[in-house]
Write a structure and sequence with these properties.
Layout lengths: L2 H11 L2 E3 L8 H8 L4 E4 L7 H14 L3 E4 L20 H7 L2 H17 L4 E2 L24 H16 L4 E7 L20 H17 L4 E4 L5 H4 L8 H11 L5 E3 L6 H4 L4 H11 L4 E2 L6 H16 L5 H18 L11 H15 L1 E3 L9 E5 L22 E5 L6 H7 L5 E5 L6 H13 L4 E4 L11 E4 L5 H12 L1
Parallel strand pairs: 1-2, 1-8, 2-3, 3-4, 4-5, 5-6, 6-7, 10-11, 10-12, 12-13, 13-14
Antiparallel strand pairs: 9-14
Length: about 475
């Protein structure tokens, strides 16, 4: 391979954020990092404990200069605490409190924890304005339904992360909040006028850019007024025209995971990679599914597209310059912060969760409590993160049921002469959950219902606790309120 060929391949590899299975880096990742690979995205299956993550990131840095990223939003979407649940409430809880200094403190604590593990990019915060209550993928990941509220908390989150030299990645541009389709599965459409888009979806991104956000993540969402039927991730009108041009953004543009069906079922993984770079993205997050063979095929397709004129070389060089500037800004990982300790994290996280939790009605004192947790299928973005109140109510009997298969009569019989607590998650999106809760409350008006998603639907009676999220901190705050 000639020197120019090696240089081109290095530029192509430099656009990729790859993933891998396991808690140590495979040889191919280390080898590709030596040859210019852009970096990695870590997932829950890469995490055992903070010490192991630091060992992993240290080995990655020993092979190259990688961007090391993961999704640590707090709340439902966590990677470092994937196996136990996050000690921080998520955006919906922070938006409900509406204290921007608290949001800044929470994200600074998150950033401190990431920096201590050697991570220099957080795929957060979500800047989506969640105007569609039935949104299957955003929900509690959003600060709320009001664009101005979302904008001010997005700025606070960016400032909190970047104050400890962890780059923020504001997502999902140009907005995933008004959708009823999960882009993991298909292409959602946000069919609004340009005036509505500017006033609502774009407002938090404009504010984040003004606050110096180091990166922005694209959405696999079609916005007909801008992109036609094309997802924004593949649209030059969205990434170059709107984001770079109108909003004046010159930081790193990162794609949402390209292994989502919105891309793979339309233009394919390698094809989507080329189209997205051409549209204006700088780093391609591949997601957890692509193999090393897929990575090699993507690199080869990018190289081929430059040679045959589909992708200008200057576009790759521009991406490389932006990513280099990001690496230079991040520098060495920050490992000295009072908030990085587990005690500090728990203090700020639990404090925020306590301020967010809301009780309507009067919860009765607990007597041999029976807790019925209504099973809710996890979204792909969240994954199978534990949730529920069990860890904080050791004296309770916990029963988790699938709502369609629940034996209402049997549950009520088990609850005779006992306190009944029913825990749900996003009941407004699941009619079977609503039916089960309504049946239990009708028979037992003294039931306490804990909603660990968005508090959109509630039964006509019963004490009702809204946590605005299912993180570990949210659960503890709810139980404290229940047992006060």
């Amino acid at each position: 391979m000639s020197q120019s060929d090696r240089g081109l391949r290095r530029l192509a590899a430099g656009t990729l954020l790859v993933a891998f299975q396991g808690t140590t880096a495979p040889g191919w990742v280390l080898s590709e990092l030596e040859n210019g690979l852009g970096g990695v995205t870590l997932f829950g299956f890469n995490v055992a404990d903070p010490g192991q993550v630091l060992d992993l990131t240290t080995s990655l840095r020993g092979a190259g200069e990688p961007v090391i990223s993961l999704d640590e939003e707090g709340g439902d979407v966590t990677r470092l605490a994937y196996h136990v649940g996050s000690p921080y409430p998520g955006n919906a809880a922070l938006g409900a409190v509406d204290d921007v200094e608290l949001t800044r403190r929470v994200y600074r604590a998150i950033g401190s924890e990431l920096a201590a593990c050697g991570i220099n990019l957080d795929m957060a915060p979500s800047a989506d304005v969640n105007t569609e209550a039935d949104n299957p993928v955003i929900g509690t990941r959003s600060f709320g339904t009001d664009a101005e509220l979302v904008a001010r908390h997005t700025v606070a989150a960016v400032q909190g992360l970047q104050s400890v030299s962890v780059a923020a990645c504001v997502k999902h541009f140009p907005g995933h909040g008004a959708t009823r389709v999960d882009s993991h599965l298909a292409v959602p459409v946000v069919d609004v006028s340009m005036d509505v888009l500017r006033a609502r979806e774009l407002a938090p991104f404009r504010a984040a850019i003004g606050a110096g956000a180091k990166s922005v993540m694209t959405a696999h969402v079609a916005v007909p007024v801008v992109t036609g039927a094309t997802p924004a991730t593949l649209s030059g009108a969205a990434l170059t025209g709107l984001l770079r041009g109108e909003l004046g953004y010159d930081g790193v543009v990162i794609t949402d995971a390209l292994d989502m069906h919105a891309i793979t079922k339309s233009v394919g993984l390698a094809g989507g990679a080329v189209l997205s770079i051409a549209a204006g993205s700088d780093l391609l997050c591949l997601g957890p599914l692509p193999t090393y063979d897929d990575v090699l095929a993507i690199i080869a397709e990018i190289v081929s597209s430059v040679r045959d004129g589909r992708l200008p070389l200057v576009r790759l060089e521009e991406a490389a310059a932006r990513v280099a500037a990001l690496r230079s800004w991040a520098g060495a990982p920050e490992q000295n912060s009072a908030e990085q300790s587990s005690v500090g994290q728990n203090v700020v996280g639990l404090h925020a969760a306590r301020r967010a939790v809301r009780l309507t009605g009067a919860a009765t004192p607990l007597v041999e409590p029976l807790v019925i947790e209504v099973d809710t299928p996890p979204t792909i973005a969240v994954g199978d993160v534990p949730w529920g109140v069990g860890p904080w109510l050791p004296e309770a009997e916990i029963v988790r049921v699938k709502p369609a298969a629940a034996d209402v009569a049997g549950l009520l019989a088990k609850a005779v002469n006992r306190s009944l607590v029913v825990v749900v998650k996003d009941a407004h999106r699941h009619h079977e959950s609503q039916d089960l809760v309504s049946a239990l409350v009708a028979a037992r008006p003294d039931t306490t219902v804990i909603e660990m998603g968005l508090p959109v639907w509630r039964p006509d009676s019963a004490a009702y606790i809204a946590t605005y999220g299912a993180a570990r901190a949210n659960a503890q705050a709810a139980v404290e309120l229940l047992t006060a």
